[in-house]
Design goal:
Blueprint lengths: L3 H15 L4 E6 L19 E8 L2 E7 L10 E8 L5 E6 L8 E7 L3 E6 L6 E5 L23 H8 L6 H5 L10 H11 L12 H24 L36 E5 L2 E5 L6
Antiparallel strand pairs: 1-6, 2-3, 3-4, 4-8, 5-7, 6-7, 9-10
This protein binds a DNA duplex (16 and 16 nucleotides) through α4.
Length: 281
DNA sequence: CAACGGACCTGCCTGC
DNA sequence: TGCAGGCAGGTCCGTT
């Protein structure tokens, strides 16, 4: 479920419910996620949620102290939440019944409750008590795909000596963040580049096209996520709002929408990779 | 450095 | 119907 558009949609969906809201309690029901959930997050009770933002696929929630005098308004820290392969965050009320795989719960004074749900437990919940951008998980990340810092020149410059497949290259978070397995295949299809081609063999013009398609496809998907925002908190399972837009992902054996040839599925870097052998070279 | 494989988990689908 | 096997949208880490 969570590629960048889902993570962005999640941020936008939870933000209005929790920003400015005061935490009554934080409970860890299952600390065994990708890394142990620190006990210290339970001490955020009594704090007020500030900004809800995102870096790559990490959801970041600033939390400030409210308690006495001097420390009032001082940052208590930033929650770092990753949804892994199967995670989700949902807003409910504090008497909503817990579901299987609800691993953490943030209850607010006004009755709102934020729950972290993750069957596969590949995600994480961490607390950074310093400048979160210096956190080991965030400090070495490449640019955001929708920012001006990311463009074809960036891709071209960094790929010159890289023989790794271009698909692996664009999924490398040191190069650019937020390009997951689905959108990597989709972007490469639009750019006419086979996923297995060596990164160093993608020329400057193709890098320009690839970067532009990554921006377009991710941007569109985020916009569509936005259209489901209204009932976001109630939604069960994956929305599937982009599945109709997919040109190659998950379509092996089906006809290419451009040329009619059969879509292929090849494992590259241990991940399924879909492409059209005629449209992509 | 770069490349690669393994690791972390559960659920769901397929085929015998 | 049961069960083994394969597969899944992420990404860090250790080894070569």
């Amino acid at each position: 479920m969570p590629e960048l558009p889902e993570v962005e949609t999640t941020c936008r969906g939870i933000e209005p419910h929790i920003t400015g809201n005061d935490l009554q309690s934080v409970s860890v029901l299952q600390p065994s996620l990708r890394w142990p959930v620190p006990d210290s997050i339970e001490k955020l009770a009594g704090c007020r949620v500030g900004r809800v933002w995102r870096r790559a696929k990490y959801i970041l929630i600033d939390v400030n102290r409210l308690t006495s005098n001097r420390s009032k308004g001082a940052p208590a820290g930033t929650l770092i939440i990753h949804l892994g392969m199967s995670g989700s965050l949902r807003i409910c009320s504090n008497n909503t019944e817990l579901r299987k795989h609800d691993h953490a719960e943030f209850r607010f004074h006004n009755g709102v409750c934020l729950r972290y749900h993750d069957p596969r437990r590949f995600g994480c919940i961490l607390l950074s008590e310093q400048d979160v951008s210096e956190h080991a998980l965030l400090s070495k990340l490449g640019p955001e795909p929708l920012s001006e810092a990311f463009d074809g020149k960036h891709l071209h410059r960094l790929s010159r000596k890289r023989k790794t497949p271009i698909k692996n290259f664009i999924m490398d978070s040191h190069i650019v963040v937020g390009v997951g397995n689905i959108y990597a295949s989709e972007s490469l299809f639009s750019a006419g580049i086979r996923p297995g081609r060596s990164a160093s063999r993608v020329n400057a013009a193709q890098c320009d096209a690839l970067a532009a398609h990554i921006k377009r496809i991710l941007g569109n998907a985020i916009e569509m996520g936005g259209t489901t925002l209204r009932d976001f908190v109630n939604s069960e399972g994956s929305p599937g709002y982009f599945s109709q837009q997919l040109q190659v992902y998950g379509r092996s054996g089906e006809a290419c929408r451009e040329c009619g040839d059969g879509i292929k599925n090849k494992v590259i870097g241990q991940r399924s990779s879909f492409y059209c052998p005629t449209c992509q070279s």
